[in-house]
Amino acid sequence: MDTRVLGKVDYLPTYQAMQDYTSQRGPDTPDALWLCEHPPVFTQGLAGQADHLLMPGDIPVVQTDRGGQVTYHGPGQVMAYPLLDLRRTGYFVKEYVYRLEEAVIRTLAHYGVTGHRVAGAPGIYVRLDDPFGHAPLPQRPQKNQASDQEPDFTGLGKIAALGVKVSRHCTYHGLALNVAMDLEPYNRINPCGYAGLPTVDLSTMDVSVDWNDVAQVLGDKLRAHLQP
């Protein structure tokens, strides 16, 4: 996997570059992983509802072709964009999302933080009162669970968001992991379509770590967990 740390780059040109890479790739095009951060921007998913964008103010809003609702990207957040041909990997989209989440969970564990999945809500969450505890969540996904169950975010904050696109079996967009951000812009939206969902970062939990360090660890975990 060709891994590139792009640093701070504008969202729109990066989005266009992902689309171009995906549309132009052939059977022998190598898979890639781009790691970067963006200036402040709200991005809206294909199914995004305008009423989840409360008061964007001076922050631009970009309509995208990823899944999901509105989210925020800004400095202090590691963006990871895996550009994979799923035909090579031998797994499907559901497994791909699981592996993305697992890479985030392992990255957080590297810093002593316990990440959790919540049934019905892609992304990774932490306990606000005990981010370092290991007890499983009652809200975790479980077998024989109704697929239309409303997510329960009681006591949780969201630390990583996912939004992916698959075109001709090839992935783009990806995930955002919050490291040390100005979290105020999340008050201007219903994050991922959920009113009042708290959003946190590693610094919220008094984990002081450099952006480049987290990008390196997350990149390593993604390369390991996205292997065929």
Automatic annotation (TrEMBL):
Residues the UniProt record annotates as site (Lowers pKa of active site Cys): K158
Protein EC: 2.3.1.181
Main location: cytoplasm
GO biological process: protein lipoylation
Binding positions for substrate per the UniProt entry: R66, G67, G68, Q69, V70, T71, Y72, H73, A161, L162, G163, G174, L175, A176
The keyword Cytoplasm appears for this protein: yes
Record domain BPL/LPL catalytic: where: 27-228
Gene3D superfamilies: Bira Bifunctional Protein, Domain 2
InterPro entries the UniProt entry points to: aa-tRNA-synth_II/BPL/LPL, BPL_LPL_catalytic, Octanoyltransferase, Octanoyltransferase_CS
A GO MF term: lipoyl(octanoyl) transferase activity
Keyword Cytoplasm part of the UniProt annotation: yes
Pfam families to which the protein is assigned, alphabetical: LplA-B_cat
Active-site residues, Swiss-Prot/TrEMBL: C192
Catalysed conversion reaction: octanoyl-[ACP] + L-lysyl-[protein] = N(6)-octanoyl-L-lysyl-[protein] + holo-[ACP] + H(+)
GO cellular component: cytoplasm
Subcellular location as annotated: Cytoplasm
CDD domains found in the cross-reference section: LipB
Keywords, in A-Z order: Acyltransferase, Cytoplasm, Ligase, Transferase
Miscellaneous comment as given in the Swiss-Prot or TrEMBL entry: In the reaction, the free carboxyl group of octanoic acid is attached via an amide linkage to the epsilon-amino group of a specific lysine residue of lipoyl domains of lipoate-dependent enzymes.
NCBIfam families, per the entry: lipB
Function (record text): Catalyzes the transfer of endogenously produced octanoic acid from octanoyl-acyl-carrier-protein onto the lipoyl domains of lipoate-dependent enzymes. Lipoyl-ACP can also act as a substrate although octanoyl-ACP is likely to be the physiological substrate.
Protein name: Octanoyltransferase
Species of the source: Hylemonella gracilis str. Niagara R
